[in-house]
Amino acid sequence: MKTIFVILMGITLAFFPVGVKKLFFKKDSLSKRMLAVLVPASFSLIAHCILLFVTKEFPAYLVYAFYFAFANWMSVGVLAFCVCYTNSDIHNKVIKFFVVPVSIIDTLLLFANVFNHFLFTIHKIQYGSGEFFRYSFSLFLVGRLVFTYGLFVYSFIIILKRFLKEPPTLRVKYYSFLIYLALITFINILYLGLDSPYNYSIIVYAFCFISSYNVLNRAVPNILIQHVLGRIADELKNGIVLLDNDGLCIYVNAFVKQNFECGKDEILHNEVFADYFSRRKEAILEPMDSFSCEVEYQSERKRLTLNICDYIIKDGESIVGRYYLIEDITALKNQAYEEKLLRTRDPLTELYNKEYFFEKVAHRLKYDRFTKYYLIISDIVNFKLVNDLHGKPFGDTILRRSADAIRKYAARDVIYGRLYNDHFIMLVPKRRFDEEVYANAFKNDMSYLQNFSYNLIIHMGLYEIDDLTMPVPVMCDRAFLALRSIKNDYKTAFAYYDDHLRQEVLKLQMLMNELPVALKTNQLKMYLQPQVTKNGTLVGAEALVRWHHPIRGIIPPGEFIEIIEKINIISDVDRYIWECACAKLAEWKRAGKTNLTISVNISARDFFTMNLLETLVNLIKKYEISPKSLNLEITETAVIYDVENQLNVLDKLRELGFIVEMDDFGSGYSSLNMLKDIAVDVLKIDMAFLQKSKDDAKSHKILEKIIILAKELGMKVLTEGVESDKQIDFLSAAGCDLFQGYYFSRPVPVNEFEEKYFR
C-alpha cells in the first residue's frame, strides 16, 4: 500500500513543477493566486510522503509541523484564489488583517511544538505490516483544523454567493469550483475519521485545483464564447446552418428556426435547401467548391427571397465541416424593384417613362431586325382645357384611364410609355396596328366618366421605322412632326410621317443650321414697306427682314421667323435690323430727308436678353439721329411677363423722344387692355380685323369706334394690310391718318424703295 501511495504521490509531484513554471511567468492576478495554492500543496505533499518513512520522534514532529503549516497556507491560497476569481475585494481585508496574521502565528506555534509538544503529540500506530507516527487530537489541533477547514467553507460560501447572483449563462464559471471544494472537504473529513496514514486528500487537492484552473482558463471561456457566439448568431438577421464532416447538421440559429419552422434535424430536407442543392448540382461543381445562388421561399405566412452561400471549414488541410450562410435579401430586392420603378416608370400612370421607353425600343430594334414597326405618339387635343374646366385631379384621372386603355388593347409585343403631359408613345408591330381599334380604345375606356361634357379627341402621329440605326429620339421627333401636321384638324385622327414631311424636316433642319451663318454673313437684308397718307405722301416705312439665300434665293419670313425664335437668335436679328435702320436714317438725314421715320419691331425676348434702353440710346448717339425718327413697334405679347419693368422701359423711351406704336391691333393678339395699360403714340390696325368678320357692317362700326377712341386718347391711327380703294375711302372717312399695304407697295429692298420715292 505504501508503495502504491508513494507512486501516486510521485506522479502528482511530477506535474507540479510544470504547473508552477507556467504560472510563475504569467502576470495576471489569478495565476499568482493559483501559484499560492500549488507551492504550499507541493511542500505539504512532500512532507506527508516523508512521514511514511520517518522512524524517530523528533524528525516526525518537525515533518508534521511542515505538513500542517503548508496545509494551512494552502487553504489561505484557496481563499485568496476564490476572492480574486469572484472579484470580491471586500474579503481581501479579512485575509490581510485576520487570516494571514492567524496563519503566521499558527506556523510559529507549530514549529515551537517540535521542541515542547504543547500543541499536540504524536504516537506510533501499526497499520498493515508497518509502523507510522500519527498525531493525537488536542484542543489546539482541533481549533487549528477548524480554522483551516473553515477557510474552505469560507471559500465555498464566497463562490456559492457569486454563483447565485450570476445569470444562468455565467454560472458555468463556478460549477466546477463548487464541486471541487465540496469534494476536497468531504475527503478531508473522511481522512480525519479514519486511522490511516495515507491522506489521499492532498492528491485530490492538487488534481482539483490544477483541473479547476484549466477549466476556468480554457473550458469555461470556450463554453462562454460558444454561448455568446450562439447568442450573437441568434441576433443575426441572416441564417446559419452548420454541418460536421459527415454532412450532419449540428447547429441552426434562431433565424432558421423562426423562418423555416424547423430545427437542425429537418433543415436539410426543407424545400429551400432542396432548391439550393438542385441548383448546385446543375452548376457541376466539385465538392470542395463554394456555391452561391438566390432561391425563393414561400410559406403560408411569408414570402422571402434568400441568397444562400456555402463555405468549407478547414483545420489545416483537413475538412472539419461546412456552413451555410442564408441572407434574407427580400428587402433589398423590394428596394431595388422600387428604385427601378422610380427610374423606369412614370409615377402617375406607371407606364414606362420616356428614358426607359427609348432604352427598351433601342434594345428591341437591335435584336429584331425583320419586323416592321410603327412608332406612335398620341395626344389628347386641348387637354389643357380639361384641366382648366375640371381641375388637375380629374385631368390625372383621364391620363390614368388612357394608360389603362393602352394596357388593355395593346398586344403583348407592344412597348408603351408616357412621354410627358398628355403625350403617350408606343412601339407597335405594323401587322398588329388597326386604326379603328386604337381610335375606339380610348373612347371606350372614357365611357365611365359621369357628367363629362367635353368631347375628347385623340390625335396620333405615326412614323414607320425604316432605318434601324436612327436614334430613337429622332424617330420620336418624326412621329411628333406627323402629329403636329393635324394639330388643328378635328376630323383627322391619324397622321403618317411621309416624304413630304421628310422634306419639311430636312428643310427645317437646313434652315436652323444656316440661319446663324446667314446673320454673320449679311444674308439677312432689311426691306422697307412705305407708310403714307391717304394721298400717297410718304411719311416713313416699316423695316422688315428678308433672307437672301445664296442658293435658294429670297426666303420669305414665314419660313424662318419662327426658327429664329426657336434657336434664340431673335434678339440678334432685331439688333441687326435696328442697326440697319439707324444707318439708313443717318444717310437720309445727310441727304436732307429729316422728316422720314422707320418703324422697327421690338420682341418680348429683347427686354430680357439686353439692356433695351441703353442699346437704343447708344444707336441714336452712334448715328447722330433723332429718337423721333426711330419708331418702336410692340405687341401685347411683348409685355406680358415682367409688365411693370417693361412699361417702365417704354415710358423712359417715350420721354427720350422715341415714338411707340402698338402693332397688330385686331389680329388676335391685342386687346383694349393695351390701350388702357400701355402709353403708346400710334395705333396700328390690321385689316385682318375686317377680313375675319361675317358681318361687314358690324365690323365697320367697331373699327370706326376704335379709331374714334384712339383719337380721343391722343393717338395717331395707322392701318396696315390695305389693298383697295374702297378700304382707303372707308378708313379715311373714319379718321385713319396713315396707311400701309400692298395697295401702295409690297416690302422692297432699300435701293428699290429709294429709287421709287426719292428720284
How much strand content do the residues show? Answer: 15-25%
* Straight-line distance between termini: 158 Å
CATH class of the largest domain: Alpha Beta
Largest sheet: 10 strands, mixed
Inertia-based shape: elongated
Here the CATH topology of the largest domain equals: TIM Barrel
CATH architecture of the largest domain: Alpha-Beta Barrel
The Cα radius of gyration reads 55 Å
Number of helices: 26
Instruction: Briefly note the structural class of the backbone.
Output: alpha/beta
Average pLDDT confidence is: 82
Number of separate strands: 22
Q: What do we call the CATH homologous superfamily of the largest domain?
A: EAL domain
- What portion of residues is helical? 40-55%
The total domain count is 4
Could you list the spans in which at least 5 consecutive residues all have pLDDT below 50?
none
Describe the structure concisely.
This protein has 759 residues and is an alpha/beta fold. The chain contains 26 helices and 22 strands.
Strand and helix map with partners:
Layout: H1 2-24, H2 29-51, H3 57-85, H4 90-116, E1 121-127, E2 130-136, H5 139-165, H6 172-193, H7 201-235, E3 238-244, E4 249-252, H8 254-260, H9 271-282, E5 291-298, E6 303-315, E7 318-328, H10 330-344, H11 354-367, E8 373-380, H12 383-390, H13 392-409, E9 415-420, E10 423-429, H14 435-445, E11 458-464, H15 472-484, E12 494-496, H16 499-520, E13 524-532, E14 538-549, E15 553-555, H17 561-566, H18 570-590, E16 597-601, H19 606-609, H20 612-623, E17 630-634, H21 643-656, E18 659-665, H22 672-677, E19 682-686, H23 688-691, H24 696-712, E20 716-720, H25 725-734, E21 738-740, E22 748-749, H26 750-758
Parallel strand pairs: 11-12, 14-16, 16-17, 17-18, 18-19, 19-20, 20-21
Antiparallel strand pairs: 1-2, 3-4, 3-7, 5-6, 6-7, 8-10, 8-11, 9-10, 13-14, 13-22, 14-15
Helix pairs in contact: 1-2, 1-7, 2-3, 2-7, 3-4, 3-5, 5-6, 6-7, 12-13, 13-14, 18-20
